[in-house]
Amino acid sequence: GQQLNQSPQSMFIQEGEDVSMNCTSSSIFNTWLWYKQDPGEGPVLLIALYKAGELTSNGRLTAQFGITRKDSFLNISASIPSDVGIYFCAGQRGDYKLSFGAGTTVTVRA
Amino acid sequence: EAEVAQSPRYKITEKSQAVAFWCDPISGHATLYWYRQILGQGPELLVQFQDESVVDDSQLPKDRFSAERLKGVDSTLKIQPAELGDSAMYLCASTNLWGTGGEQYFGPGTRLTVT
């Protein structure tokens, strides 16, 4: 079953805002992955983190692998409408199996 | 850019019927996964293949689900008989464990509705 806690569960963004979300676990992971899923589609890999403390960027996205190896966060800077979707964190153990969080739903504020 | 292919994209079936899903992983990816995703949740692993061999099917309901990857390339997941609770998105993912650190790449999924 899922072992990861993602927060917030949902958030509203306004274009241009920076947004952050995080993922915590009671277990240690070797790799953290962040995915984005649009309705009716499969998850798309955004960022992969391999080392505790690592900070990695992909365009306007920045993610960090927590020092304790039990958490990770994702930041989106200067959000745009196409950032809307569901963001999932996933922790990977040495057997390469993924455990997913329940997702953070990002919606545009009207 | 190489992608994981899945078909069909959508399937509606009546309970007690048989249904099958197909997946073609990224070329060269030896490891293939089938996941089930219930609305509002993250994907959950059903079965993992390394080449043609099952590595882990501990979460696969074997009384009704079966999966095969006969030649170590494409794979089929079957449900027989389908139950109402099987309605979900079925996702296939693949990885080249030795080349990319185990990053998994997902296909577009098959949305199953059991009526």
Which short descriptors sum up this protein?
heterodimer, A: mainly beta, 6-stranded mixed β-sheet, 0% helix, globular, B: 115 residues, mainly beta, 4-stranded antiparallel β-sheet
Describe the biggest sheet of chain B? 7 strands, mixed
- Biggest pleated-sheet summary of chain A: 6 strands, mixed
What is the CA–CA distance across the termini of chain B? Answer: 37 Å
- State the shape of chain B: globular
Helix count of chain B equals 0
Low-pLDDT runs of 5+ residues of chain A are: none
Rg result of chain B: 13 Å
- SS class of chain B: mainly beta
Question: What share of residues of chain A is helical?
Answer: under 10%
What Rg of chain A is obtained from the alpha carbons, in whole angstroms? 13 Å
Q: Give the averaged pLDDT of chain B, no decimals.
A: 94
Structural class of chain A: mainly beta
- State the helix count of chain A: 0
Instruction: List segments of chain B where confidence is low: pLDDT < 50 over at least 5 consecutive residues.
Output: none
DSSP strand tally of chain B: 11
Would you tell me the overall average pLDDT of chain A? 93
Terminal-residue CA separation of chain A: 35 Å
Helices and strands, with pairings:
The complex is a heterodimer of chains A (110) and B (115).
Chain A: E1 4-7, E2 10-13, E3 19-25, E4 31-37, E5 44-49, E6 55-58, E7 61-65, E8 71-76, E9 85-92, E10 98-100, E11 104-108
Parallel strand pairs in A: 2-11
Antiparallel strand pairs in A: 1-3, 3-8, 4-5, 4-9, 6-7, 7-8, 9-10, 9-11
Chain B: E1 5-7, E2 10-13, E3 19-24, E4 31-37, E5 44-50, E6 53-56, E7 65-68, E8 75-79, E9 88-95, E10 105-106, E11 110-114
Parallel strand pairs in B: 2-11
Antiparallel strand pairs in B: 1-3, 3-8, 4-5, 4-9, 5-6, 7-8, 9-10, 9-11
Please give a structural write-up.
The complex is a heterodimer of chains A (110) and B (115). Chain A is mainly beta. Helix content of chain A is 0%, strand content 54%. Chain A has strands at 4-7, 10-13, 19-25, 31-37, 44-49, 55-58, 61-65, 71-76, 85-92, 98-100, 104-108. The radius of gyration of chain A is 13 Å and the shape is globular. Chain A starts with a strand and ends with a strand. Chain B has strands at residues 5-7, 10-13, 19-24, 31-37, 44-50, 53-56, 65-68, 75-79, 88-95, 105-106, 110-114. Chain B has 115 residues and is mostly beta strands. The radius of gyration of chain B is 13 Å and the shape is globular. In chain B, the strands form two sheets. In chain B, strands 2, 4, 5, 6, 9, 10 and 11 form a seven-stranded mixed β-sheet that branches. A four-stranded antiparallel β-sheet of chain B has the order 1-3-8-7, with no helix packed on it. The interface between A and B is medium-sized, with 25 and 25 residues.
